Amino acid sequence: MSSQRTKSSLVVTWMAVLSLAILLAGLPAKGQSINGDGIFLVGSGFLCDTGDSYACPAVVKSAQGDTYEMTGAGTFSTEGKSVTATGTFTHKSADGDTLETGIWIASELESFSSYGFAPGALTRGGQPFGPPPFGHRRTPMLSGPMPAGGLAVLRISLLPLWGASKTALLQVNCALGKVPDEHQVEGIRLTFEAGDTKFDQEMGGRTMFLLARPGPGTSPLRPVPRVDPNRAPPG
């Protein structure tokens, strides 16, 4: 790799880390006042605080053996199917060689289905973890956003360090709550617009949704119509 490419790689990496850090830093505060919105994490943030190497990043593999390692976070609204999310990705060959790396940006919420709340999801060994109000010395929330399971399908753009950008559907599955039999495995999947390679073998990574708990004057989170997460995005 040339020195110029190495320099560019460092710039892109730090830009991705900075944008993700800024987004993650604002999530707890935003989450305390969401109304009909949700927050999600993909192999990042406080999900990595457990010390479990399986948790971060989220990894998905194709039948050919190459993988995508992804991290990210964002917010979404089922009303209007809007999403604000970003993260990093690394594409590796079956031999473990890095083929490309860069950042991804979400542009649309294709669908979302909630599996229900799971307030005990933010405890390990009987002790809470995560950001306020979940973290150490904090009391469990009685109202406001709560950990939940669900399935979200996002339209994203992958912007590699070199080469053309790609469009794909990113499926984020959190296996908490009342999980359907066909979605028992937590993780991510990718379906690209171009080519016929599907990344549909979840190899690791924790995901989580934080949803607003319905209360007086609060409307329940509206479901977004389901789409087939394995279909290719339309041209």
Write a structural description.
The protein has one domain. The longest helix is centred in the first third of the chain and has 29 residues. The protein starts with a helix and ends in a 23-residue tail after the last strand. A hairpin with a 5-residue loop joins strand 8 and strand 9. The strands form two sheets. Strands 1, 2, 3, 4, 5, 8, 9, 10, 11 and 12 form a ten-stranded antiparallel sheet that branches. A two-stranded antiparallel sheet has the order 6-7. By secondary structure, the chain is mostly beta strands. It has one helix and twelve strands, in the order αββββββββββββ.
Concise synopsis of the structure shown:
The protein has 235 residues and is mainly beta. Helix content is 12%, strand content 43%. A hairpin with a 4-residue loop joins strand 2 (58-62) and strand 3.
